[in-house]
Amino acid sequence: MTHQSVANTAIHDGGDTRPVTAPDIAVRLVGALLALAVATVHVADQGGVTAFTSPAWIGWGYRIIEVGGVLTALVLLLPRPPRPAPAWAGWAAGALLGVGPFVAYILSRSVGVPGDSGDVGNWGYWVGTVSLFIEATLVVLSVSMLLALRQLRST
Q1: CB 30 within 8 A of CB 134
Q2: CA separation, residue 95 to residues 78, 91, 103, 114, 135 (Å)
Q3: Among 36, 25, 91, which Cα is nearest to 68's?
């Protein structure tokens, strides 16, 4: 089970029910690609790698998301020892990477954030919408894997 991720789904084939597992590297690769997609969307929204969004605290927030996306992808792709215990760090980082910008986007569009009230009500921004889908997918995958690891550890 060290090379497979746990999925409590069953295949029903003529009365035969067996658990379905996905190769661990495939699931980690999907997580890494989602983390890189979060970083890429924020680079695009900021106007490129060398651009810096104003106010400065938002620009630094973008930098943290961009670097965090790359680091999360690396942690998810690094080879691991056969024990599943250290695997939680990459998935926890993925959950945080998805939740942070998701909440910030909702706040910036609903009540506004300090220094940037111009985006209140701007729900039609397509880059933001794409970002929300990517971040939500990363959160769902990361939380699912954290729960599966917790269940695996308790058995």
Answers
A1: no
A2: 18, 6, 12, 25, 9
A3: 36
- The rounded distance, in Å, linking the Cα atoms of 30 and 23 is 11
The structure tokens listed for 149 are 């690891």
Q: What is the mean pLDDT of each run of 10 residues along the chain (155 residues)?
A: 46 56 84 96 86 83 94 89 68 94 91 82 84 95 90 75
Task: Give the chain's length.
Answer: 155
Intra-chain end-to-end CA distance of the chain, in Å:
13
SS3 labels along 18-86: EECCEEHHHHHHHHHHHHHHHHHHHHHHHCCCCCCCCCHHHHHHHHHHHHHHHHHHHHHHCCCCCCCHH
Which two tokens mark 125? 């921004």
Spatial distance between the Cα atoms of 146 and 59, rounded to a whole number of angstroms? 30
Single pTM value for the model: 0.80
Structure tokens, 106: 């909702």
With tokens 């999360």, the residue in question is 72
Distance CA 128, CA 45 (A): 8
